[in-house]
Design goal:
Bound molecules: cytidine-5'-triphosphate
Number of strands: 21
Mean pLDDT: 94
CATH class of the largest domain: Alpha Beta
Low-confidence stretches: none
Number of domains: 2
């Protein structure tokens, strides 16, 4: 994915309380600044036992605050000033003890004092827990976290897996990349809150024999970008993916398939439970009529084998012709005459919206240019007819989709 500045212009106060996960916060600062944010680090005394303010200053390019008595502030009120400059306070790691303090509204050192004193409307509080699994599952911690959420804070994670103490379970801090992705999503408008979207992505693979098959160059990047953009906007996303080498976007439920028939068999029963179906997959139109049980050998013969092909079911057309179909969006990957082909597909598959792109030029690339085609209009995305990275396009497409969706059933 090309370098993106999704947090450009955002000012984040990153609070560290005491925990071994403090080492991850160093990487988090790097990722936040790379994404365009400015980062002001505030550390508790316990955090300083795990990582030094020197490290955090070097990475953030700003002096770290560790005390409410910091005389650098002209009014000597860092707990007031820091929260008023910030677009969000992110406490990562948030220890069990620090969460308990926040839940009780205690304020005996700078970080908790600043959280309490922040302007709640303008400066959201995001808590990223990090602790041993017994501490996390303890009723006291669960009670405190529930209290924080009901007081308006957001909680990212925790993750699950190996813990520093050697135990395995829930409570480890999310990885820096996951915190970054969740923070970027946090700032996206929630235009698709609670909407259920079903998306197909990637190529299909139609086996000829146990080692060979027919496939295509689709990388799945556009479909995965759409899944991410939809989840960022609050949608519940199911992603049915052909064979691709992409990681699952945060919060997206993924089902892997191989063949067009498997994709069809997976999608059809799910379609009725979704409000939107977006078919980005480059589904193979044909498959070998028979599957050879064993590898087809040359055996010294000079004649190449020939195959009979049979047509695959059209997943998009089948979903669009359900008695109560979801809002269907098709993709048209063409090599020429984009508008004409997209219009023809709109009518043939009886869908309200086709997204056209010139396939061979964009397969596997990070950038793309789209043409949104409905019964009346055609408009390019980006609007100026240039190209943009696939996540930017996916976000614009989701904003457009939100405008087009009928009111909730
Ligand atoms: N599609 C599908 N199932 C298929 C074939 C296509 O769901 N068996 C969907 C694609 O995901 C895409 C749209 O239909 O959203 C258009 O696919 P495309 O292959 O471009 O169109 P075809 O109908 O196959 O027409 P042609 O091959 O003539 O371009």
């Amino acid at each position: 994915m090309s370098e993106r500045a999704d947090l450009q212009g955002r000012h984040i106060v990153l609070g560290l309380s005491g925990g071994i996960a403090c080492y991850k916060s160093a990487e988090l600062v790097r990722l936040l600044t790379k994404a365009g944010a400015t980062v002001q680090v505030v550390m508790t005394e316990a955090a300083e036992a795990f990582i030094t303010p020197v490290t955090m200053q070097a990475l953030s390019g700003r002096k770290v605050y560790t005390s409410q008595w910091d005389a650098r502030e002209a009014n000597n009120m860092p707990h007031i000033n820091l929260g008023r400059e910030a677009d969000a306070i992110v406490v990562a790691p948030a220890s069990a003890d620090f969460i308990a303090k926040l839940a009780q509204g205690r304020a005996d050192e700078l970080l908790s004092l600043m959280c309490l004193a922040r302007p709640r409307e303008a400066c959201p509080l995001i808590v990223v827990p990090a602790m041993n699994r017994e501490m996390w599952s303890h009723p006291a911690t669960q009670r405190n976290v529930a209290q924080l959420v009901s007081d308006g804070a957001s909680v990212f994670g925790p993750g699950s897996g190996d813990q520093a103490c050697g135990e395995v379970g829930d409570g480890r801090m999310l990885e820096p990349e996951e915190i970054l992705a969740d923070l970027i999503a946090f700032f996206q408008p929630k235009q698709l809150q609670g909407r259920r979207l079903l998306i197909t992505a990637g190529p299909t693979f139609e086996p000829i024999d146990p080692v060979r098959g027919i496939t295509n160059h689709s990388s799945g990047k556009m479909g995965f970008a759409i899944a991410r953009a939809a989840a960022e906007r609050g949608a519940q996303v199911t992603l049915v993916a052909g064979p691709v080498h992409l990681s699952t976007p945060r919060g997206v439920q993924r089902i892997d398939v191989m063949t067009a028939q498997q994709m069809f068999d997976t999608v059809l029963p799910l379609a009725a439970q979704h409000e939107v179906f977006i078919a980005t997959a480059a589904v193979a139109d044909w498959r070998p009529a028979t599957l050879a049980e064993h590898k087809i050998k040359k055996d010294g013969k000079k004649l190449a084998p020939s195959f009979e092909l049979t047509e695959n079911p059209d997943i998009l057309a089948a979903v669009a012709s359900l008695a109560v179909p979801p809002y269907c969006v098709g993709f048209a990957a063409e090599s020429e005459h984009l508008l004409e082909h997209a219009r023809a597909k709109l009518q043939r598959k009886r869908v309200p919206l086709i997204v056209g792109n010139l396939g061979p030029a964009t397969f596997g690339k990070d950038d793309n240019a789209l043409l949104l085609v409905d019964a009346e209009h055609a408009r390019p995305l980006p609007a100026d007819g240039t190209s943009a990275d696939k996540l930017t396009l996916a976000r614009e497409l989701m904003a457009e989709l939100a405008r087009r969706l009928p009111a909730r059933r």
